[in-house]
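sry for the spam today, last one i promise. struct tokens for design, 507 residues
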């Protein structure tokens, strides 16, 4: 019988926080490996890769938490974090939670335009980043964004050659024994804020520890992960799904978390083959490619569980069957920042049918735990409700519309859906109208037109279907090179800037 790896409450009835889960593993196995950097970290950030035991990670978390407290950040204040998928990201988030702060997760590709909107929307008191990521000077980028957010009082950074005005942080693995946070832990207070785009516009989505643990448990149990799982994740924890599938499942399992900075497939294959991980967390389409290429079937590969995240849930049922009989694949259906559910593939490799009503993890097991509920609305769209779904964050913001709309306990994802009369299974047929998803980044389609109009007359920016990412952006202007420069000067992210790349060479 499979049970939850850790209950969300203690025997006394006090709900656990993410830091509580981490501390339990520190006490149980302080010398076990906790976190492992990407092997190509030096190319990404300029720093050498490292790995931390749970005891070392605990020291590093306390050291950074103490730095936040000494900087005058009061409990409950918001600190934004924008970093690559390295140890620093995980340690900084856990340190902020230990200090009683709320962490706003900023996607790595966001530039000044999106950063400024997000920081002002949540009233962040601080931001933490890196001196550089790849070839981008993220130190200067972070400072410029902070200068346009009037609430920012502290700017922190890891790495060499930090610009003036950025307070240095470091991973220190000693000297913090016995440090106690002045903040009392409360699992019902907000812990993480992620950001979503809905037909009504840009939204900040806060979640507490219980909601995050609920999302992690749904993945952990459906995938059948063991205690002490050795996880390898190529998913940056800068969204609800990214955070729960990697960081929360790691905390629930009490095992190790190895990180891959996406997306260098050669390095990822090296990590899969050379290291001894038993669980791989990757985008769903990439999981299928790795199986079809035979990478996972090599004799030296220890992977037994694959968790595939689908940012395009309408494409799961049409995907190829899972071909690697030595591993299991669990499809995780993602609906922006609203919520998720998982379904393990059948033994023949086909996708599991999704039915309306309550869903549990693991599906079909007598001991399974109810996680949430799937609803097909009268508008023929799919909706979610349950412990992980932040209903209040998605309610209409205007008082007039709230007065006219009945209070409901579910959130409409906007994905077109219907129930097959013969089988009773749900078919998810199309993404939300008016929203473009490129990988993990969502835009309003009308925003693409607005940005194009800020360029030269006749410029066009459009979204084209893409098998891996859902959509890809393509732009056309009289002078593509000048269009790229203009979009960069506007502070837009590389997805939009690269839409106007030079295609004269056929690339």
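last one done:
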């Amino acid at each position: 019988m499979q049970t939850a790896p850790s209950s969300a409450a203690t025997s006394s009835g006090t709900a656990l926080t993410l830091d509580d889960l981490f501390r339990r593993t520190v006490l149980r196995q302080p010398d076990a490996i906790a976190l492992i950097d990407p092997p190509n970290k030096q190319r990404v950030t300029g720093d050498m890769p490292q790995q931390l035991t749970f005891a070392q990670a605990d020291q590093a978390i306390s050291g950074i938490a103490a730095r936040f407290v000494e900087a005058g950040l009061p409990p409950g204040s918001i600190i934004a974090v924008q970093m690559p998928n390295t140890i620093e990201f995980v340690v900084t988030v856990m340190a902020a939670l230990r200090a009683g702060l709320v962490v706003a997760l900023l996607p790595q590709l966001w530039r000044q335009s999106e950063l400024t909107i997000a920081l002002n929307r949540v009233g962040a008191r601080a931001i933490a980043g890196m001196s550089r990521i790849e070839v981008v000077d993220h130190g200067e980028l972070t400072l410029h964004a902070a200068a346009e957010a009037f609430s920012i009082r502290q700017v922190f950074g890891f790495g060499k050659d930090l610009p003036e005005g950025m307070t240095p942080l470091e991973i220190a693995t000693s000297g913090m024994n016995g440090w106690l946070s002045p903040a009392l832990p409360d699992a019902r207070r907000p812990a993480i804020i992620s950001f979503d785009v809905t037909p009504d516009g840009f939204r900040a989505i806060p979640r507490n520890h219980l909601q995050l643990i609920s999302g992690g448990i749904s993945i952990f149990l459906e995938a059948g992960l063991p205690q002490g799982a050795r996880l390898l994740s190529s998913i940056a924890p800068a969204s609800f799904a990214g955070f729960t599938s990697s960081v929360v499942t790691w905390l629930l399992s009490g095992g190790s978390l190895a990180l891959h900075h996406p997306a260098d497939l050669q390095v990822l294959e090296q990590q899969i083959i050379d290291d001894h991980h038993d669980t791989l967390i990757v985008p769903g389409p990439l999981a299928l490619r790795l199986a079809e290429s035979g990478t996972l079937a090599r004799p030296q590969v220890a992977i037994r569980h694959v968790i595939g995240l689908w940012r395009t849930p309408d494409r799961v049922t049409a995907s190829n069957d899972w071909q690697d009989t030595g591993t299991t694949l669990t499809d995780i259906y993602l609906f922006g920042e609203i919520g998720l559910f998982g379904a393990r593939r059948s033994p023949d490799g086909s996708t599991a049918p999704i039915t309306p009503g309550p869903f549990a993890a693991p599906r079909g097991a007598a001991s399974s735990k109810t996680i949430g509920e799937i609803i097909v609305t009268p508008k023929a769209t799919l909706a979610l409700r349950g412990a992980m779904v932040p209903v209040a964050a998605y309610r209409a913001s205007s008082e007039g519309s709230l007065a006219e709309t009945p209070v409901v306990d579910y959130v409409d994802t906007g994905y077109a859906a219907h129930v097959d009369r013969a089988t009773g299974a749900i078919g998810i047929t199309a993404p939300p109208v008016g929203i473009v998803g490129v990988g993990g980044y969502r835009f309003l389609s009308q925003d693409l037109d607005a940005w194009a109009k800020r360029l030269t007359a006749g410029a066009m920016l459009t979204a084209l279907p893409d098998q891996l990412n859902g959509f890809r952006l393509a732009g056309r202007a009289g002078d593509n090179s000048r269009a790229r420069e203009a979009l960069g000067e506007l502070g837009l992210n590389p997805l939009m800037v690269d839409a106007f790349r030079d295609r004269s060479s056929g690339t």
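Residues 9-13, 397-405 have pLDDT under 50 and may be disordered. ok im logging off now
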